[in-house]
Structure formats: structure tokens, C-alpha cells
Amino acid sequence: MPSLTDLEEEYADMNVKNGPTKWTWTPDFDSRCLAISTLGQWTLEAYTWTRFCEWMKPLLSSGIMYTPSPKGAEARLHWTLQQCQPFSNQSEPVQISENLKNRLENLAGLEIIYRGLVLTPSGIALKGFPKNEYQYEQILETRQALPAYFNEMNVAYTEPYKNTICHATVFRWTKAPTQQQIDYLMTSLDKWSEARFATLKPYKWIIGRLTLKVLDNIVCKEVAAPLRIAHRGLRGGPNESLENTLRLLEQNCTNHVVSECDIWFLKNEYWLGHDAPLIYVDIRWIKARKQYLMLHAKTMETFHELQRQNNTEAADLHAFYHTEENVILTTSGATIVYPGKPVLEGWMSMMPERAPDINKRGAAYICSDFERI
Questions:
Q1: In the chain, is it the N or the C terminus that has fewer CB atoms within a 10 Å radius of its CB?
Q2: 28 and 42 within one domain
Q3: Are 358 and 341 a contacting pair, CB within 8 Å?
Q4: Are residues 210 and 277 in the same domain?
Q5: What is the DSSP letter of 121?
Q6: What is the pLDDT of the chain when averaged over all its residues?
Q7: CA 35 to CA 150: how far, in whole Å?
């Protein structure tokens, strides 16, 4: 199975193969293709994206931009897990099997970092890289399983091309570019080779017949796939003897489960525990498992130290401080809502079992003592 190193090389090959002689342009955006895609949650790198939009201006007379919030003639930035049929005039909806739904739900927690640009036959795309090898394997295994799912749904699966990349179209030609535009693009494309443009954390999939602009999705079905976070490491209900223990947190990390855990910083040491610091934990242990830990700082001083680790040592820890505030932001930009308060699109539902009447539909994260709720 390809690795992230192979993915890097594949993008490099694309920039060599997809030069100006291979470009095509599409004036017609009304046809549809059957695809599995996601529209968000996007986080743009503001400085890079602003400069990139300025750089793109000389090309816009011959094409269109794709953005998360399209305006005017723009199209919608998205990531297509897999194109399942070629473009056509078909528009009937597709019923999703329970097996396909479950498979997409199991992709919860994906994080794709978009870094650099790659040429495609139809325009320019952002180069996407899953956060780690495990996530890349999940994507590739899901794609390999799709023919069987479509067969059980009695839907033709005729993928136009084998897909091992995670690119997101950011510009598409609508007419032949001028020689001046070609020279401008080809002589300055490399300046973006290591620029980080955005991060995508999918929490909802759309399945159906999408237009090239991905604006009219009335024939699509949705599958919610929020990231499930184990509150204090728990997945089977409240358990004071197990919560916040190293053994439980390590077990979750091994199983690729994200855990929220309570942490204290006292006298230059870290401790785990909800009501009091009870279990010593080394900062190296935390950093080694950071991608599967969401750290609930129990004091302001603890949060200050975690911030310091992020700001001065590039620790990249996901941390927050929360008492009774209605809404707070974590260091990774997630929005946590106090139990019982409305959960808006893309936010985190905290302990929904405490407020079963609150609609958590549209939540990007669900933090609970229970694996499924």
C-alpha cells in the first residue's frame, strides 16, 4: 500500500506530467458526477491564503477559484474521497447502504493538511496530505472497498481513474489561457511548493451527483461523521476508578481513539485527575501521544504552561481551559459548548447525555462517556 512518501512523489510527478500541453478547459458546469465528497471543516492559513488570492488574480480571466465560502462566479472548495461515475446528465439520487454509511462514519477524525500546489489537466489543486500513515491507510482501504458497497446498492461503480491522492481543486480553467498567463503560472508555481494553505477536518460526507462547482447538492445524501472523543478516556459510561488513568489512555491511543483528560501542572510536574492531581505523568509521555489527547487544563496556570509548550517549543498540544463558560475555544480552534447550550454547525457537543433534548446534528465533535450516543 502506498505511503505518505509515495504520495509526495506522486504529486511531484503530476507537476512534470500535467504541463500546459495537457490542459483542458470546461465552459459547461451543469453536468454531474456521482461522487463521495466533503465540504469542511476548513481552516485556512490566513496569511498564505490572502497572498495566494493576490497571486491568482492574473489567471482569473481564464478560470474560476474554489473557496470554502464561494461568492459570485466562484466554486466551492471541497475534497472528493472518490469519484464513482464519470460526468453525465443523470440527476437521480442514490440510496446509501448501511455498510457504506458505517464505513464513512469510521473515517471520523481525519485531518488533511494542504501544502503546496499541483497541476492537474483541468487546472490547479492543493496538495493534500493525511495527518499520519494510519489515516492515509484508512482512506485507501475505504476506496478499495467502494466497489463492493456499490454492488450491494445495485449502483454502477465505474471510477474514471484510480485515486491515491488527496488533492482539492482550487482553480479550474474555463477557457484557453493566454501565453502570458501560462508563462506567469509556470515560472512562479514553485514559490508555493512548501506553503501551508489549509487544514481540512471532515465531519460530514455528501454522496450523490455533484456539479463541477459543487454548489447545487439537492440530489445528495448526507452522512454525519463527527469525531467521537472519550470523556476522561471513558467509552462505556462513567467509571471513577478508570477515568484519567494512564492504562486507559494508552489503550485508547493504541486503538486510535481520541481521549479528553484532566491535567494539572504543579511545581513543574504534570498530573492527571479530575478533582485533584492524582496520577503523575511525564510531559514526554503526553507529547508522544498528543494526536490522541485533548488536554483539559484544570487551572489557569496549567493552561498557561500548555500554551507555553505550544508557543515556544512547537509542542502542538490540543488543550483548553473550561469552567462554566457557555462557549470556549481550544488551542486547535475547536469550539466547545457547555452541556445544555445550543450546538451550532461544526462545534463540539460536550456530554450530550446530560442534555438529550439539545440537537447535536451538525456537530463536528462529540465528547462523551459513551462510545455511541
A1: N
A2: yes
A3: yes
A4: no
A5: T
A6: 94
A7: 12
Tell me: do 217 and 107 sit in the same domain. Answer: yes
What is the mean predicted confidence (pLDDT) over 47-73? 97
CATH assignment of the domain containing 213:
3.90.1140.10
If one counts the domains in the chain, the total is 2
Q: What is the pLDDT of residue 94?
A: 85
Q: pLDDT tens, 280-331?
A: 999 999 999 999 999 999 999 999 999 999 999 999 999 999 998 999 999 9
d(Cα 347, Cα 327) in Å, to the nearest integer? 10
Sheet holding 123-130: strands in order across? 42-44, 196-200, 112-120, 123-130, 168-173, 63-67, 75-76
**Same domain as 218, residue 241:** no
**By the 8 A CB rule, do 225 and 346 touch?**
no
Burial (CB count <10 Å: 0-12, 13-18, 19+), residue 356: exposed
Domain boundary among 181, 199, 224: 224
373 within a domain of the structure (yes/no): no
Instruction: Give the whole-angstrom CA distance, residue 334 versus residue 323.
Output: 16
Q: Are residues 185 and 288 in the same domain?
A: no
For the question of whether the overall pTM of this predicted structure is more than 0.90, the answer is yes
What letter would DSSP give residue 369? S
Do 312 and 294 share a domain, yes or no? yes
Is the Cβ–Cβ distance between 167 and 127 less than 8 Å? yes
The verdict on 205 and 238 lying in the same domain is no
Give whole-number Cα distances, 172 to 70, 211, 344, in Å.
14, 13, 32
Residue 245 is inside which H or E element, if any? none
pLDDT tens, residue by residue, 74-104? 999 999 999 999 888 777 788 899 999 999 9
Give the structural domain span for 37.
4-224
pLDDT for residue 30: 79
Contact (CB, 8 A) for 327 and 312? no
How far apart, in whole angstroms, are the C-alpha atoms of residue 283 and residue 266? 12
196 & 267 share domain: no
